Amino acid sequence: MKLPAFEYLRARSPEEAWQLHSEVEGDAVYLSGGHSVVPSMALRLQAPSRLIDISGIADLHGIAVQGEVLRIGAMTRHAEVMDNPLVARHAPLLALAAPHVAHPAIRNRGTLGGNLALADPASEFPAAVLALRAKIEIMGPEGRRHVPADDFFLDLYETALAPGEILAAVHVPLPPADRVFAFDEIARRRGDYAMVGVAAQADLEEGVVVDASIALFSVGFTPVRATAAQAALIGAPLSPESLARAQASLAEDLDPPDDPGFPAPRRLQLARVLLGRVLNRMETRP
Amino acid sequence: MKVLVNTIVNGAPVQEAVTPRSSLADFLRDDLGLTGTHLGCEMGACGACLVLLDGAPVHACLVLAVQAEGGRIETIEGLTETGAVADLQESFHDRNALQCGYCTSGMLMSAQALLARNAAPSRDEIRDALSGNYCRCTGYEAIVDAIAATGRARAVTAAPANTEAAE
Ligand SMILES: Cc1cc2nc3c(=O)[nH]c(=O)nc-3n(C[C@H](O)[C@H](O)[C@H](O)COP(=O)(O)OP(=O)(O)OC[C@H]3O[C@@H](n4cnc5c(N)ncnc54)[C@H](O)[C@@H]3O)c2cc1C
Ligand code: FES
Ligand code: FES
């Protein structure tokens, strides 16, 4: 369908964005890639009176190592997440996730910041930033703050962003050279939203897992950290036995929605199968 | 309120006042009469509306015309005129890779972008690149064949130049 009418304004600075946002309290929407906002307006799921284009704000652009972290600007398109050498090196789970996000042409426009701000529970990047133990840089009229990914995704399409606040960047801690990673999802067709997905990383010392970080998506209202499965891996080598323990622990971590077309026990079973596959495929970054 | 938009469409500068709710596809079709860009679903699912924006395929139904400010747009009309996709079009024709043709301009955009990145894609890679393009007529096999054949043919034409460079 054609879009309902709205007013379109460009913000050149964060201050201008907040100003334009507060003028029509509750009825303005920020526009980055627009690849979630525009289809949802076409489907009449939303009809804001004002779209504020924030893509021109300089602070939201660029990918750079800053001290101990890789800062990835919110306006980074999915295609750039997929191809950028710094992302491949320092945030490999994002690079591994990117080919699973939508279709090639959508990846040319959709942005990392828009994807995380939307927080679709079936989305790949939110789980990847959770597994990477990244922080989300948020700026608002009250100042700038850095929220751990664990505290950012609050509920269905609900994040730590207050109305009017802007997601500026993602900060990924630089990984040690021998950290291992893997990412995969099960979807009906390539490019479809996942039925279940897993992002995982682990640190080993003398062959023994000393730290593990595992996040699943499409298993509930938010991406979910698999705390029990992580604990099941620690203190042992990655072996068929420890993998089986982690798979069994998933029942403690997940409480998937019960959908008549996709019952909870089946989703849990798919999650177990996929977790096994992912843990079998853990590799250092290229 | 209309917004003034400056773009380069198929090589020619264009300045137009557009309503914010106009998609890039509406702008190309209704304001510029470039009806080779098709609209199917208007929600990003079918790929009939693909155009090149700054060289990369995008859904013209999901990009607002106002968002194309400062952008360089190429439509199927432009790529046909320059001959950039002449071999792909020829190959689609030879292999009967179109029937009604509704999906074809979008298919050609995806194919052109794929071959620019990956000169010799496998059939799986071609299918992956077309994951956002629906065709309701052909069953896709012929489209995959046509793209694979063009990739091979382009490799042969490019080969002598590479040999020269190596010498
Ligand atoms: C056919 C189709 C298939 C898709 N498949 C997938 C898929 O498999 N996996 C997946 O993850 N996604 C998928 N998507 C969604 C796509 O990845 C979106 O582009 C992305 O989720 C949103 O990014 P955007 O830049 O387009 O955001 P926009 O649409 O511009 O914005 C999305 C929301 O976030 C807010 N927002 C945007 N940027 C910021 C910011 N910097 N700070 C604060 N708020 C902000 C907006 O106000 C809006 O509410 C699909 C989309 C389509 C059309
Ligand atoms: S019309 Fe744009 S994707 Fe269908
Ligand atoms: S040829 Fe008819 S939709 Fe593809």
UniProtKB/TrEMBL annotation, chain A:
Entry-linked PROSITE patterns: FAD_PCMH
Oxidoreductase keyword on record: yes
FAD-binding PCMH-type domain mapped to chain residues: 1-177
Name used for this protein in its record: Carbon-monoxide dehydrogenase medium subunit
Gene3D superfamilies in the cross-refs: 3.30.465.10, CO dehydrogenase flavoprotein, C-terminal domain (3.30.390.50), Uridine Diphospho-n-acetylenolpyruvylglucosamine Reductase, domain 2 (3.30.43.10)
Entry-linked SMART domains: CO_deh_flav_C (SM01092)
Family annotation (InterPro entries): CO_DH_flav_C, CO_DH_flav_C_dom_sf, Diverse_Substr_Oxidored, FAD-bd_PCMH, FAD-bd_PCMH-like_sf, FAD-bd_PCMH_sub1, FAD-bd_PCMH_sub2, Mopterin_DH_FAD-bd
Record keywords, A-Z: FAD, Flavoprotein, Oxidoreductase
TM region positions: none
Keyword DNA damage: no
UniProtKB/TrEMBL annotation, chain B:
Lineage of origin: Bacteria, Pseudomonadati, Pseudomonadota, Alphaproteobacteria, Rhodobacterales
Gene3D superfamilies reported for this sequence: 3.10.20.30, [2Fe-2S]-binding domain
Keyword match Transport: no
Limits of the 2Fe-2S ferredoxin-type domain: 1-79
InterPro entries reported in the protein's UniProt record: 2Fe-2S-bd, 2Fe-2S-bd_dom_sf, 2Fe-2S_ferredoxin-like_sf, 2Fe-2S_ferredoxin-type, 2Fe2S_fd_BS, Beta-grasp_dom_sf, Diverse_Oxidoreductases
Protein name (database record): Carbon-monoxide dehydrogenase small subunit
Entries under Pfam families matching the protein: Fer2, Fer2_2
Cross-referenced PROSITE patterns: 2FE2S_FER_1 (PS00197), 2FE2S_FER_2 (PS51085)
